[in-house]
């Protein structure tokens, strides 16, 4: 099989690794940066292998639900999870906005200590996807930086606030 298309986001934060880790694993902090320009509600956050992160994003009268299942948790170095769209009952569903979007994405986030700063690397890869889903994901990679980038700006602001 050929290499799967992979979205890669790398960012350095002017904050210690333990604090960056906390912003990804504390539900109150996570809700402040994840999902820019929407209201983010973390319904459940169990950061452990097999644990779930059940997330709702609201804008106007619309809601978007996501279901995350952690497969690997290595504090404060690495988070790995299976990321899916879900219905309001947390059942995995196809994307309501893009029917060929992969039902599941394998997400890996690493946190590397860099002399008091933190180098973060996030990758997103289609998981057990069919050809149409892989093609849809590959076609969307170029635009993914917009949403993730806005979230990373909010995260950088939050980290500065927490250290002030």
Topology:
Blueprint: E1 7-13, H1 17-25, H2 27-33, E2 39-45, E3 52-59, E4 62-74, E5 78-86, E6 105-114, E7 117-126, H3 131-163
Antiparallel strand pairs: 1-7, 2-3, 3-4, 4-5, 5-6, 6-7
Helix pairs in contact: 1-2
Q: Could you write a compact summary of the structure shown?
A:
The chain is an alpha+beta fold.
β-strand percent reads: 35-45%
- Largest sheet, if any? 7 strands, antiparallel
Structural class: alpha+beta
CATH superfamily: START domain
What is the highest CATH level, the class? Alpha Beta
The coarse overall form would be: globular
Mean pLDDT: 95
* Low-confidence sequence ranges: none
Could you give the count of β-strands? 7
Question: How would you describe what is shown here?
Answer:
By secondary structure, the chain is α+β, with helices and mostly antiparallel strands. Helix content is 30%, strand content 39%. Helix 1 packs across helix 2. The mean pLDDT is 95.
Provide tags for this entry.
Alpha-D-Glucose-1,6-Bisphosphate, Chain A, domain 4, alpha+beta, 164 residues
